[in-house]
Design goal:
This protein has two domains: 329 residues, Alkaline Phosphatase, subunit A (3-Layer(aba) Sandwich), CATH 3.40.720.10; 63 residues, Arylsulfatase, C-terminal domain (2-Layer Sandwich), CATH 3.30.1120.10. Helix content is 28%, strand content 17%. The chain has eleven helices and 16 strands. The strands form three sheets. A ten-stranded mixed β-sheet has the order 7-6-5-4-8-1-9-10-2-11, sandwiched between helices. The longest helix is centred in the middle third of the chain and has 27 residues. It is globular and about 60 Å long. The N terminus is likely disordered. It binds calcium ion.
Length: 448
Amino acid sequence: MKLNFALLIAAWLASLAAGSAAERPNIIFILADDAGIGDFSAYGCKYGSTPNIDRLATEGMKFTRAYSGSAVCAPSRCVLMTGQHTGHALRRANQSKTGLLSLPPDQMTVARLLHDTGYATGGFGKWGLGNPGTTGVPEKQGFDVFFGYYDQKHAHDYYTDHLVRNSDDVPYQESGKHLWEDYSHTRIASETLRFIEQNKDRPFFCYAAWTPPHGDFVIPENPVFGQKPWTEDVRNYAAMVALVDRDVGRVMQKLRDLGIDEKTLVIFSSDNGANPEFVESLGSTGGLRGYKRLLYEGGTRTPFIARWPGRIQPGTTSDVLTSFVDLLPTAAHLVGVPAPKGLDGHSLVPTLHGRGQQEPRESLYFEIYEPYFQQAVRMGDWKGYRLGTKAPLELYDLKADPAEKQNIAAVHPDIVHKIEAVMSKEHTPSPHYDAPEQGKPRGKLKAE
Ligand SMILES: [Ca+2]
């Protein structure tokens, strides 16, 4: 009798352990590169449709007030990985006055946190936070494997003769004919799917930092948009957005085939707004002001969709203010460990689960140093923007004026004062960047 009781207890403990393991979801974060919010039909795309990403939204939760980490690649990815906004993060622009910055060896990242709690961790696509030979390489930042481009400039080349896996070159014999098998995204997408398949029986984190639709604007075939009366860049860009959508569909099909749909949280987003080239031609910024490199809404507002069958109620919309700073605390919450100290984000789990209290957010802060210094704050429906730490603040009411057309700073000195205080508090000096007091644009940008 005693023995049976002990067995019963052991079985109960084992079931508890299995239960808690089952609670820890796989996390797949799919990050498009330079796609605007207006490129996706879930957010009102005008020129095409993205049915697989639509389906993520109808089966999950669509965020309507989500922001990337920055208005260009490297700082946005730095914010995503480290949970620190660009007033605190190492990378605050693609370039710095001290050269290319690599993540330091002791940096906490989403991958490290998940790796340390037993997750398999894989990254596929573009890294940008440390080249081979530096402390910033992904395999020293918590990834078991990273395949693709370490260097952002290399990532412009879709018909490259090599990609990189854990700092080693992986050479490719090019046909010279620009076929699908020569195209780097073909390999990157297939490695993404392979990683998911190989790790189907254990919790995994898959960072699918795919490079389309970032330039070069090239694609092996373009049957849908190839005959449109647009420039070649525009035709190819549209096809590259469609390619991202197709491969989101392939990831979803893989999860169904492996039977791990309900164990997997999938998030889709983009690292910054679209290039100016696609604002008028395609409406890629969804009618918002600005584009890539600017901290107006068109530079940082991003598609953000989360799907997790059985946990996230299908077809829901959230207007919670969120940005890439929230991924690391969300991941910590999901695996049941305390969030590391010094983060700027909050866990989104209460919102995703539709229960519990979402931690209120006073504001979101951004700064950037290219093409010139800018600061921006989103606070409720207000948006503040300025070009120097003592420059006059522009103020917009995004509810009444989502395109930031009317600067109403003169009418609301109290709000201006509040936002200026947030900017002063959140901006910390960095030895790698100079923040001017009275900045001014270095020339006009295209389409501005
Ligand atoms: Ca980008």
